[in-house]
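Pipeline run #58 for the internal structure catalog. This entry was flagged by the ingest filter as a single-chain record with no existing model, so it goes straight to prediction. Upstream metadata was stripped on purpose; only the residue string is passed forward. Reviewer on rotation: M.T. Logging verbosity set to normal.
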Amino acid sequence: MNKEGVEGYWGAVTSSVDWCEENYAHSYYIAEFWNTISSLAMVVLGLLGVALHHRSLGWKLSISYLLIVVVGIGSVLFHATLQFEHQMWDEVPMVWTACYLLWVLLGEHGDYGKRKNSYGIGILLYCAFATYVTSMNKGTTQFFMFQTSFGFVMWSDLYLVYQLYKKARPETLKLFQQGTVFLIFAITVWLIDSNLCFVYQYLPNPQLHAWWHVLMCTSLHYFFVACGYESVWKEEKKTNVRIGYCLGLIPFVQADDKDGRKKES
């Protein structure tokens, strides 16, 4: 939401979307201050996820967390500048992340898993197509094409997560449910912030898009931990893994050495 006549360090807005936060309200150098700061939650969560899981869950989940870091950095650039080229560093990695997660999740589902490489080629082609339509359009058409192409893959991911939930072990049921709660809140605040900016002419702005960043990456973490734990039990039948809590709050998959000692990253 622009204040008429206000222009900061990065100049006129060239991105295809400008969120409800008032531009350059807190800093001459940061277009959307709270949206920028909250994007760092993705960077922190991604790095923490790698640190906690690179031994217990291996490279597939580590790549997932690293992609979240890339999305977070792109989101910082986008919201700080509101420039189209930096918007692409936010949205295109989101497409890549959703496509990668689809490939990983397909590997966890019976017959799909047996043909994972074949599906991988199709996913790669779709990812290239979605990247093209996201980055080569402008204005409202660009935003629509991104939301459509990204949304199709993300809802497919969630469908496969739901299939894992239906067969989940007791240890992960609560994690799946908590991830779903955070996801519902995240989608709700995103929809409100996307469609009801006009109400902030009369009410204080609660910075809902910033909360979307925090809620969504929290939801992803719960799903990553739950799906990762299920994958370990399904493929490797490990009995030396359990759900632990970092600082008594943040869930993660904890591996023990053969002698029973905790092996933490």
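catalog note: Strands lie at 241-246, 250-256, 262-263.
catalog note: DSSP finds eight helices and three strands in the chain.
status: ready for reviewer M.T.
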